[in-house]
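Per reviewer request, we include the raw input and output of the structure prediction for the construct analysed in the revised manuscript.
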Amino acid sequence: MSVNNNYKEERPWGSFEILHQEDHLKVKRIIVKPGKRLSLQSHKRRSENWIIIRGNVLVTLDEEEIPLASNQHVFIPAGAKYRVGNQGSEDVVFIEVQTGIYLEEDDIVRYEDDFNRL
């Protein structure tokens, strides 16, 4: 079943909006504020593909740090520890495509968090 509800949620690091959702697929538009970063986290039951639309980010993927700019992408496999940070002075925008057997927010395992959400 396809859901196109454009649900938006504010977070301490920025916001996300669900653009499309169906079985085993969710597409989000994510904004990360300047100087902010998401938790160091992983997911057991989903993988993610990120496509950077605007800005420059530093992605941590397991032990590797990967700088990405507009029109670049990265694949985050299920089980990998990752985070994304905006080290610039403008909002970063990227599209996240989630695939897997479970796509809800409670599949997050947090290891580090700038906002004490462990």
